[in-house]
Amino acid sequence: MNNLSKIISLLLAVSASAELNAEQIQGIIKNNQGGSISGATVKIMGTNHTSTTNESGLFTLEAKPGRYELHIVADNFVHSNVDVSVSKNTGAELTVSLDKSALEIIDVHATPFHSSNIESALPITVLHGENLRMRQENTLGDSLSKEVGVHSNFHGGVGGTPIIRGLDGPRVLVTQNGLDAGDASRIGPDHAVSTETSTTERIEVLRGPTTLFYGSGAIGGVVNLVDERVPRSTDTKGEWLVEHNSNNEQTLASGSVNGGVGKIAVHADAFYRDSENYQIPEKNGIDEVENSAAESSGFTLGTSYLLDNGFVGLSYQTLDQEYGIPGHSHGDETIEVLSDLKQERWQLLSELDINNQYIKSVNTKFAYTDYQHSELEVGVVGTTFNNETIEARTEILHQNIWNWRGGLSLHYKSSDFTAVGEEAFTPPSKTDSIALALMEERHFGEVLIQLGARIERTEITAATVRLPEIELLSELSAEDSHDEHDHDHATDAITRNFEVEHIYTPVSLSAGLVWDFSDSYNLALSLSHSQRAPSASELLSFGPHIGTGSYEVGALFSLQNPEGETPYFGLNNQDLKMETANNIDLSLRKFKGDLGFILNAFYNQIDDYYYEQATGLSAISEHEHEHDHAEEEEEEITLPLFVFTAQDVTLYGFEAQAVWQVTDEFSWKIQGDIIRASLDTGGDLPRTPPARIATEFSYQGEKISADLFINNYFKQTHTAALESSTDGYVMVDANVNYHFSLGQHDLAVYLKGKNLTDEYAQVHTSFLKDLTPLAGRSFAIGIRGSF
């Protein structure tokens, strides 16, 4: 804590400045019919000063004499930026008119400028408010699976990471308030994301390369969870929720509260979630997914010191989760395997308005995460995964230079990962990276230009990489593999340990524009060149990954096929290159009036794309397990062999969303997306999401709100070698809310229904699609409140 105290002291010292008498900025916010808008937020950009309009649309802000930019936000209206000059003794007065919008226009915290989603050259989706509460699931990926361009690698409802435009794993970064979640979800879909949606205020999804902000691990996109664990005000407010689900008998309770005194703000949140195995539409006599129960809990405490020019704050989070991992069996015996996950996380956030001759503001983020999860087989620990992550990022935003606004970002991240046990398919490794990025933007009339560049140094080291002996089978079934061991096999000549050190220098460049060519429309174009160093698991894996039912071998090793001999593994003598993506993104948006739409098209050419390639071979691995809960015995298990390989690929697709505000209460939305992902040498990438189209009918009355969502997934026939196709299906979901007040509390009783037609559905992006179909019909009843 000594270093942390020094950091806080330094930030407080930097923020110190002489106080001057403040003047007032007063104004009124109206709609374009002249009516007042209540509940609008008015903020002085680059400061912590905000005000909310009253029932008459009036607001008041205090500011020192000078020129300022006000940012005005109101639900169902287009945001507005207004320049204002504050004079000594007179202050400033103004009237601002906002245009109505059928689209949700929301400021995005995942970008350094906090611009809205229609001001970005890259497409951004934000899930918040009632929509977030109605769509939250056990996993992050499942919670986002209805969003345009986003799917989930559904893993039996206990694991599920987001897939953005066909990319997942080490290409999609999950962050908490802008910093890496620090878990092990990127090395396997059976590893849960260590975040909780029930205590999150909003989830932001940046679709496309965002390496400038977050580094090479975000070459496919970012999912940023935003909460107030580090509070920015002393306003007293809170939110709570209690819910029960009929399908898996899940009970969920969560709550958060903010408050404070003087310049000290505090925050606390907690949750508890407990569920049984989930039920599926009966097929072949099976009506539930075994080993899919889960129990989790956690809490967060945070505090901030509020300054006239910003804040400095610290939070502590702990998370405990125990969940089953479906799909484990040895022979005809189903084995109960549990994952016991624990995480502690410290996070420091600071935003300071320096506002001197050169520097406008300094934003600092720091996180230390200690993550561990153990896989238990019949109560005995088989494998333990540990990940210790330290991350720090400082953004220095400069004063406008020739009307350019922007700044420098210095970013450091260190991840120390170990896996110990009989199913530790990845050796202990450490990944260190440091990067410098420059981001700038400027308006040229109706055109906003956004430019950026980033250079990064990534070092991957592993002290004891093991090249073990394994037995390979060709074209044999699991049953055949145990017949008297009369099959041909070969092993690597020797079993040996060695050290690995790879150093990469990823470079990313980006150029984008947003052209407001009409009062209600804009056109966005983004061009990017992004590079990514392969992850430690893509390079170093060599062992059984029981969670995905496969034997994984990293790109550091190569499969040797001598003529007339059985294949075996040796070291890969080829240069292990960086993944390089060249992406074009084009968006057309209509954002004013009762009809709004967003159309996106993208083309992504990726050289040296690392993916797990099916070989048609199987590997035999020794496995010890407890038999009949008494004796330990060793047996051979046979798993299909997948090898990480790098090939050139092309991904392209189209996304569309249109919203029609039919009346003040009723709206209709239609959306869809399609993606093609193919190897340049021919063939398709595995587990590519199918095309889909959805429609949503929403009603928002004074007391009642309701929503009907119909999502049609098409059959996926664009499959990789040795991959089966997946039938299409239709999911019908609905929810109804009754809103009322009790004193100072706003309450809502709600009913959620999912898969109302009880459709049997397999998720093509899942490694276990044949074993873990989606849940059958379910109903959840709950009550939530806020104050």
TrEMBL record:
<dbReference type="InterPro" id="IPR036942">
    <property type="entry name" value="Beta-barrel_TonB_sf"/>
</dbReference>
<keyword id="KW-1134">Transmembrane beta strand</keyword>
<keyword id="KW-0798">TonB box</keyword>
<keyword id="KW-0998">Cell outer membrane</keyword>
<dbReference type="InterPro" id="IPR037066">
    <property type="entry name" value="Plug_dom_sf"/>
</dbReference>
<dbReference type="InterPro" id="IPR008969">
    <property type="entry name" value="CarboxyPept-like_regulatory"/>
</dbReference>
<feature type="domain" description="TonB-dependent receptor plug">
    <location>
        <begin position="119"/>
        <end position="222"/>
    </location>
</feature>
<dbReference type="InterPro" id="IPR012910">
    <property type="entry name" value="Plug_dom"/>
</dbReference>
<dbReference type="Pfam" id="PF00593">
    <property type="entry name" value="TonB_dep_Rec_b-barrel"/>
</dbReference>
<dbReference type="InterPro" id="IPR000531">
    <property type="entry name" value="Beta-barrel_TonB"/>
</dbReference>
<keyword id="KW-0732">Signal</keyword>
<dbReference type="Pfam" id="PF13620">
    <property type="entry name" value="CarboxypepD_reg"/>
</dbReference>
<keyword id="KW-0813">Transport</keyword>
<dbReference type="Pfam" id="PF07715">
    <property type="entry name" value="Plug"/>
</dbReference>
<protein>
    <submittedName>
        <fullName>TonB-dependent receptor</fullName>
    </submittedName>
</protein>
<feature type="domain" description="TonB-dependent receptor-like beta-barrel">
    <location>
        <begin position="306"/>
        <end position="756"/>
    </location>
</feature>
<keyword id="KW-0812">Transmembrane</keyword>
<feature type="signal peptide">
    <location>
        <begin position="1"/>
        <end position="18"/>
    </location>
</feature>
<keyword id="KW-0675">Receptor</keyword>
<dbReference type="InterPro" id="IPR039426">
    <property type="entry name" value="TonB-dep_rcpt-like"/>
</dbReference>
<comment type="similarity">
    <text>Belongs to the TonB-dependent receptor family.</text>
</comment>
<keyword id="KW-0472">Membrane</keyword>
